[in-house]
């Protein structure tokens, strides 16, 4: 056994979160793709069987009241809230991340002061966020200004209405400065909208503490909610009375069953709802969140940094120099919970990832040349990190 393998064993033995792995359905595979789809919590199938057979099968429409279906979007939002540093009553669950990005950006322009006609968007953002920001700009008559996150403070001005930013870059795993950038946006009189897809459940976010205006995020990555599980929308309490959704639906009406032709928005986070909730996937998400009971996000962050540090050390030790280059920042303050490695030979990127998966190490890639490895601290251990680096070296040497 190598020194790194011995260290991995010792680190796993001392890991206070190691027992959480037993809560998930896992096998001998090293699963490092939780930044795309989290693993299945072991108890969720039984809960879904109950939902299907009793709540839907036996109670049928009565379950909207008797099983709490109608209030699920707000109830589950309140369970997500502590994981992103928000007080209750500010998060509603439903729709996709894309739909919620559109709601948030348009609503932010409507909350902005008169005469502000520019939307700044992260130039490195996940493509859909950029597409939607562009559509929101066209619809509202705003000018879209793509800008790198580090350059946002210099790009802000008296015409800036809203800024849409990613907390963690999906390609590189770079963690952007949410507190500092939010403060800069507010200093310019604009509103800050954050996409938390690659940070929620992996590190502290502090939405309330840092004064974020609106935020969105998916639930199928580090929150382990299942494929296509509904996203969430955060609207800071101070904005809720004026929040004007571009998608007013019947379930966000003050009297949803009144079926009146005129729209009157409900109070609070309910305003973020649109249509009938997707109950099956929503209740699977609710059950999945049980794995977070008693887990401190700070402890998750500490393990995340330790895991990614150790993986980078193993890569440096095992992989011959010049074959891959880390593009994820080394500084803890600038790193999310993934490690991205650039293949120096871009043509080998896809074959390398296919070979890794074939040998039981599952990551993913972003074309043309980035190998991504996501570290979910609830179920990934240090032996996983060591094995992944060792197999990577073997594949690259083949």
Short description:
The chain has 398 residues and is of the alpha/beta class. The protein contains twelve helices and 13 strands.
Walkthrough of the structure:
45% of the residues are buried. The protein has a 7-stranded mixed beta sheet, with helices on both faces. Strands 9-10-13-12 form a 4-stranded antiparallel beta sheet, covered by helices on one side. Strands 1-11 form a two-stranded parallel ribbon. α8 links the parallel β5 and β6. With 398 residues, it is α/β, with parallel strands linked by helices. α2 packs antiparallel against α9, α4 packs parallel to α9 and α10 runs parallel beside α12.
**Could you give the count of β-strands?**
13
**SS strand fraction:** 5-15%
Give the helices and strands as they follow along the chain: HEHHHEHEHEHEHEEEHHEEHEEEH
Q: Note the main sheet.
A: 7 strands, mixed
**Secondary structure tally, helices:** 12
* pLDDT averaged over residues: 97
The level of helicity is 25-40%
Poorly predicted runs of 5 or more residues: none
Distance between the termini: 22 Å
Biggest sheet, spatial arrangement of strands: 2-8-7-6-5-3-4
Radius of gyration: 22 Å
Query: How would you sum up the global shape?
Result: globular
């Amino acid at each position: 056994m190598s020194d790194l393998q011995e260290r991995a064993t010792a680190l796993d033995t001392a890991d206070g979160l190691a027992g959480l792995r037993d809560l998930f359905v896992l096998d001998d595979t090293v699963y490092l793709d939780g930044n795309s789809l989290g693993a299945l919590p072991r108890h969720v199938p039984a809960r879904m069987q109950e939902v299907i057979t009793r709540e839907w099968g036996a109670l049928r429409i009565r379950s909207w009241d008797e099983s709490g279906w109608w209030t699920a979007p707000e109830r589950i939002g309140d369970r997500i809230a502590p994981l992103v540093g928000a007080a209750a009553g500010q998060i509603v669950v439903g729709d996709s991340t894309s739909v919620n990005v559109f709601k948030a950006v348009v609503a932010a322009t409507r909350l902005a002061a008169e005469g502000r006609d520019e939307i700044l968007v992260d130039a490195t953002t996940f493509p859909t966020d950029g597409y939607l920001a562009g559509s929101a700009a066209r619809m509202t008559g705003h000018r879209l200004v793509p800008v790198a996150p580090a350059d946002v403070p210099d790009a802000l001005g008296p015409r800036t209405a809203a800024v849409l930013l990613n907390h963690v870059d999906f390609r590189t795993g770079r963690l952007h400065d949410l507190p500092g950038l939010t403060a800069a946006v507010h200093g310019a009189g604009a509103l800050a909208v954050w996409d938390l897809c690659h940070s929620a459940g992996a590190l502290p976010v502090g939405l309330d503490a840092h004064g974020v205006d609106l935020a969105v995020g998916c639930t199928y990555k580090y929150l382990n909610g299942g494929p296509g599980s509904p996203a969430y929308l955060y609207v800071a309490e101070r904005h809720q009375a004026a929040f004007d959704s571009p998608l007013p639906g019947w379930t966000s009406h003050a009297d949803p069953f009144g079926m009146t032709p005129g729209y009157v928005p409900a109070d609070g986070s309910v305003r973020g709802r649109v249509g009938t909730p997707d109950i099956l996937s929503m209740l699977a998400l609710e059950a999945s969140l049980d794995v977070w009971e008693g887990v401190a996000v700070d402890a998750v962050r500490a393990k995340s940094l330790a895991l990614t540090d150790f993986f980078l050390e193993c890569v440096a030790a095992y992989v011959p120099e010049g074959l891959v280059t880390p593009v994820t920042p080394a500084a803890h303050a600038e790193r999310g919970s993934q490690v991205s490695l650039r293949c120096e030979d871009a043509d080998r990127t896809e074959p390398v990832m296919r070979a890794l998966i074939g040998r039981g190490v599952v990551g993913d890639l972003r074309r043309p040349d980035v190998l991504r490895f996501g570290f979910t601290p609830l179920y990934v251990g240090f032996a996983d990190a060591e094995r992944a680096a060792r197999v990577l070296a073997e594949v690259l040497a083949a």
